[in-house]
Amino acid sequence: MLVTGKAHKVGAHIDTDAIIPARFLVTTDSEVLGSNCMEGLEPGWVKRVSKNDIMVAEENFGCGSSREHAPIAILGAGIPVVVAKSFARIFYRNGFNMGLVLLEVGDDIAKLSDGDKLEVDTGNGQIRNLTTGETIICAKVPAFMQELLDAGGLVPYVKKRLADRQ
Amino acid sequence: MSHNLAEKILQAHTDEEITRAGQIVNCRVSLVLANDITAPLAIKSFKAMGAGKVFDKDKVALVCDHFTPNKDIDSAEQVKVVREFAQQMGVTHYYEGGNVGVEHALLPELGLVGPGDIVVGADSHTCTYGGLGAFATGMGSTDIAGAMALGETWFKVPPTIRAAFEGTLEPFVGAKDLILHLIGRLGVSGALYRALEFGGPVIDALSIEGRMTMANMAIEAGGKAGLFPVDEKTLAYCKAAGRNGDTLLKADAGAVYEQDFTLSVTGMPPQVACPHLPDNVRGVDELKGLRVDQVVIGSCTNGRIEDLREAAAILKGRKAHKNVRLIILPATPKIWRQAMDEGLFSIFMDSGAVVGPPTCGPCLGGHMGILAGGERCIATTNRNFRGRMGSLESEVYLAGPAVAAASAIAGEIMNPAKL
Ligand code: SF4
Q1: How far is residue B318's CA from residue B312's CA, in Å, rounded to a whole number?
Q2: What are the tens digits of pLDDT across the range A113-152?
Q3: Crossing angle, helix B141-150 and helix B39-48, to 10 degrees?
């Protein structure tokens, strides 16, 4: 998948309460959650986002609670990809399961600035910064997780496992 | 191969041979947990997976503790979804109303989790059960749906950081201070993708409740699990909770650790984590004079009977400052009754406290103690992210029960030794 959009840069240790505060957890609707995405960071943050824009974060993105509402809110806001220096563990799993593409790039994160236009090739884990002309190649995801992605996420994967057991 | 605690427990639940950290293995799970916020999403995924029944109706726990007693129509609807699912699936361990407590205080007390178990929960503080020697970790709702359907899930074998504690604890210094100190040292991502294993004489001497307080906050350093060896004390706790057949458990001699260090705690003052991250830790005296508007004593970190006794010892015969709302939430109905029977509620009421039902309540900014802009709270909870307990302009400081109680009396952050 090729995604082209504007980078929205956020800081380090962005927690799930910043991504979607607990008061919004009374629904599982992605559109409603999306309209409140990052409300705990800055009220009205989501208004700057256009469809297919890309979130860019420093280390430990998504730390805190296990709420799957966090990746759902990001997707609901129209953001299909998050690029970060590193991700918190539970958030990383959740992202994969929800079909949110997560690219961990380590120190290369410095090559991306707020407002840059990015082109992300999710299949090859390649990020082209169209504003600066630089390219970042991300580390490969582990084989098992690639298998999950290829199956279309955890839901179809479990569905198949259940069918195999029958 | 010698295994550390995390590897040893994972190995006992898989047919594959564990040879290195980073390996991905499929493990059978002992218990699967979700709550009123995370279960509705898990149920949605469970249905999308085409699953007709849970893998074992005795090994699924659904605990409606976050917004309960339901704070509004939306949260009532969510609980209804969980209740109906529990009934439909015949789930044995469903809790709501008079039998509900904060999940991570409730399940150990009911004997539903114990040594050597693998527990996965759609709640990040599932790591609490590491205090009993269980490999317990939080996951998202869809992962939990998969585990509810299959009875197994995949894990990446984590590298382990071993932290030993030695020395003598000062008065009013306990488990919460030990873990805050460690998080301050490691940082909020210091244990990212890793397991923590605790040891040393201070840990051996700690109560099971104290160990659970520490394991609870492993996630606050980014950890996947926080593990304690299983000793006679653990076995006694589990037996009292109605379990049978648990055995001692510790890491093999020669087990491999990514880091292995010892912290001396002699002379360490009570610790407080300042806004807005749990690793922003200082000694309590550095914060003297900081006015507080609210004090919360409760949660899965410090809402157990031991914590309430510690708070009561300080509050006894004293009054909370007139500008402070002191909110005390015993974490489970059993703890509530015990506190009542021991006369702790009289002490709390005399001090001017509000005693509430067992609920997560203000810990996650749910209800029963939300902060306005500019307000400051000191709480025995585990997270002080910006806006966690209410307004984005409010502040949460984290401490143990003794410091929280002393601060309620002084109206400012206070070292109980100097009250
Ligand atoms: S008490 Fe707080 S940290 Fe514990 S489960 Fe409830 S909301 Fe989560």
Answers
A1: 10
A2: 999 999 999 888 899 999 999 999 998 777 788 788 778 7
A3: 60
Q: Are B200 and B281 found together in one domain?
A: no
- The domain spanning residue B120 has which CATH number? 3.30.499.10
Strand, helix or coil at B283? strand
B288 contact A CB<8A? no
Chain B 302-331, residues with CB within 8 Å of chain A CB atoms: none
Asked if B330 and B309 touch (Cβ cutoff 8 Å), the reply is: no
**Residue B383 in tokens:** 């997270």
Residue B20 lies in a domain: no
Rounded to whole angstroms, how far apart are CA atoms A79 and A100? 8
Is A156 part of a structural domain of the chain? no
User: Rg of chain A's alpha carbons, rounded to an integer?
Assistant: 16
Residues B359 and B315 in one domain: yes
- Let me know whether B128 and B35 are in one domain: yes
Per-residue pLDDT of B370-391, as tens digits, reads 999 999 999 999 999 999 999 9
* Domain, as residue range, for A34: 2-139
Q: Which of B127, B143, B186 to mutate to test the interface with A (most CBs of A within 10 A)?
A: B143
Task: Give A 7-46 residues with CB within 8 A of chain B.
Answer: 13, 15, 17-18, 21-23, 25-28, 40, 43
Chain A CB within 8 Å of residue B373 CB: no
Residue B181, chain A, CB below 8 Å: the answer is no
Ligand 1 site: residues with CB under 6 angstroms?
B 66, 102-104, 123, 125, 299-300, 360, 363-364, 381-382
Q: What CATH number is attached to the domain comprising A29?
A: 3.20.19.10
Cβ-based neighbours of B94, under 8 Å, separated by 6 or more: B61, B62, B82, B83, B86, B87
pTM of the model: 0.96
Task: Give strand pairing partners of A47.
Answer: none
Closest ligand 1 atom, CA of B363? 2
Query: Structural domain of residue B408, as residue ranges?
Result: 271-418
Does the ipTM surpass 0.95? no
- The Cα A3–Cα A127 span in angstroms is 10
In 3D space, the residue among A102, A101, A91, A11 whose CA is nearest the CA of residue A59 turns out to be: A11
Do both B135 and B276 map to the same domain? Answer: no
B244 and B279 belong to one structural domain: no
| Distance of alpha carbon B117 from alpha carbon B131, whole angstroms | 12
Which is nearest to B127 in space by CA: B119, B118, B136, B117?
A: B136
